[in-house]
Amino acid sequence: MFSDALRALAQTFSQPFRRVFWLSLLSTIVVLALFGAGAQWALDALPQFGTAWLDTTLEWVARFFAVIVLIPLVHPVVSLVASFFLERIAAKVEARDYPLDPPGRDQALLQSLLVAIRFTAVLILVNIVALPFYLVPGLNLALFWIVNGYLLGREYFELVALRHMEIADARALRRRHGLRIFIAGVVIAAFATVPFLNLLSPLFATAFMVHTAKRIGLT
Predict the structure, then answer these.
(1) Distances, alpha carbon 51 to alpha carbons 54, 58, 64, 129, in Å
(2) Which letter does DSSP use for residue 165 in this model?
(3) How do residues 45-85 score in pLDDT, each as one tens digit?
(4) How many domains does the chain have?
(5) Which of residues 86 and 212 earns the better pLDDT score?
(6) Is 112 helix (H, G, I), strand (E, B) or coil?
(7) b/e burial code for range 115-139 (CB count within 10 A of at least 16 → b)
(8) How far apart are CA 134 and CA 146, in angstroms?
């Protein structure tokens, strides 16, 4: 498994991935900038109580929570934006490393969009629910890896598997190899916690999961 992770890491920085990376990065910056503008508008709309210390305290508390909420949003937003390009990445990895296997089929754009939005919504909701626990030293990182490892492993495996089989068969295969896919998801989640590398995590995750899926018998 870790050899597959190193293989995927090397591919993440290769030339075919760079255009997808820059497109997804620029789009992510735009989305997060819009979120930041919305948060600033909400801060400006906070009611004033006429007491200087109270108004200042409320403003700083609101800014603190805006930043705390923004941090868990970075990876879901990156994943959502990159989802428009991940079929292309999966196809490149399959063609380069598994040329003798039947090629996968790209999903319809609307279906891919709906799946990406659903996954992003679940990822954001789960991380917001877990947010208080992320503030506990010693627990936060392990919990982030476990929670997101399960979600990311499931999502990226299905992204790859649905290129080759129907959704019921993909989910059955995922359940049969649940532990391996979960561990692969934890590796992806750990990658996503590294500053700057987390912007590459959807590309790494897709390449890594192609290798993982092929190793458990996906053709």
Answers:
(1) 5, 11, 20, 33
(2) S
(3) 666 666 767 667 766 666 666 555 565 566 666 666 667 77
(4) 1
(5) 212
(6) helix
(7) bbeebbeebbebbeebeeebeeeee
(8) 12
